[in-house]
Amino acid sequence: MRIEADLSAAAARERLAAAVREAGRLALGFFRPGAATSAEVKSKIGGSPVTEADLAADALLKAHLLEVFPDAGWLSEETADDAGRLARRAILVVDPIDGTRAFMAGDPRWAVSAALVVDGRPVAGVVHAPALGETYAAARGEGAALNGAAIAMPPPDLRRFSAAGPRPVLQAMAERIGASIDIAPRVPSLAYRFCLVARGAISIATAAENSHDWDIAAADVILEEAGGRLIDASGARFVYNRSQTRRGALLAAPEPLAQGLLEAFRAAVGAR
């Protein structure tokens, strides 16, 4: 597949990674491990916080990535949405700081996330956790990697799972399938939570409804290239660059397990 600026998916991944790492370095300048951020904090409409680090990282990513992909549309949590993106074949989907509250509180489990979507599906994605020194990256057909080393999900143990996500959902799923589930402490960055599944650190992860495309697009291709699947209650792969960016409840799991867990997941989230 050839994409914007005549780059291969692998080359696009490298361009994304360079920009995301630079944005991560910028954000790290405001991060205080175990303490409140030095960044100015404001409230967005709806009450969620945004820091000057979010906005600065967003501006950096937009400037750098649109120079590489000049014909791509743009969708970011921190940029006003432009409906003109819907007419573009390619779109950049970005979250400058996924896990802003964690970032503000000195919790290192936040990430910078960017994906290139072509014809509705991500072809390259990077999730970079600067405070942890972890960079997850994938390109369509090229596999997934953590800090340059290939990652792939191990075969799941059908009797016992490790998991991250809303506890009531995970407990309900465990009861329905008759398995034991070890639930990890809450992982504040959704993109990072799904990358933990991609590298095999946990078996599955779930998310409550109301995440957005910028939370998941990069993790989606990383999961798929590592042998997993990100789905909602429909069980179908996601199509991106729609007018509606909000998503329902989500499940990330190894490919052989995702469809087998679908009925339990639907029941746990109350989906029809």
Describe the protein.
By secondary structure, the chain is an alpha+beta fold. The chain has 2 domains: 4-150, Fructose-1,6-Bisphosphatase, subunit A, domain 1 (Fructose-1,6-Bisphosphatase, Chain A, domain 1, 2-Layer Sandwich), CATH 3.30.540.10; 160-269, D-Maltodextrin-Binding Protein, domain 2. It is 33% helix and 26% strand. It is built from 7 helices and 14 strands. The chain has helices spanning 9-28, 52-68, 100-105, 167-177, 190-198, 213-225, 255-269, and strands spanning 41-43, 49-51, 73-76, 90-98, 111-118, 121-129, 134-139, 143-146, 149-151, 160-164, 180-183, 204-207, 228-231, 250-254. A 7-stranded mixed β-sheet has the order 3-4-5-6-7-8-9, sandwiched between helices. The radius of gyration is 18 Å and the shape is globular. The model has no long low-confidence stretch (mean pLDDT 94).
Concise synopsis of the structure shown:
The chain contains seven helices and 14 strands.
Task: Please outline the helices and strands.
Layout: H1 9-28, E1 41-43, E2 49-51, H2 52-68, E3 73-76, E4 90-98, H3 100-105, E5 111-118, E6 121-129, E7 134-139, E8 143-146, E9 149-151, E10 160-164, H4 167-177, E11 180-183, H5 190-198, E12 204-207, H6 213-225, E13 228-231, E14 250-254, H7 255-269
Helix pairs in contact: 1-2, 4-7, 5-6
Q: What is the distance, rounded to the nearest whole angstrom, between the alpha carbons of the first and last residues?
A: 37 Å
Radius of gyration over C-alpha positions, nearest whole angstrom: 18 Å
Number of domains: 2
Give the beta-strand count: 14
Q: Globular, elongated, flat, extended or rod-shaped: what is the shape?
A: globular
CATH fold topology of the largest domain: Fructose-1,6-Bisphosphatase, Chain A, domain 1
Give the integer mean of the pLDDT values: 94
Order of helical and strand elements: HEEHEEHEEEEEEHEHEHEEH
Total helices: the number is: 7
Task: Give the helix level as a range of percent.
Answer: 25-40%
List the strand order in the largest sheet. 3-4-5-6-7-8-9
Task: Determine the strand fraction and express it as a percent band.
Answer: 25-35%
Helix/strand/pairing category: alpha+beta
Largest sheet: number of strands, sense, barrel closure? 7 strands, mixed
User: CATH homologous superfamily of the largest domain, by name?
Assistant: Fructose-1,6-Bisphosphatase, subunit A, domain 1
CATH architecture of the largest domain: 2-Layer Sandwich
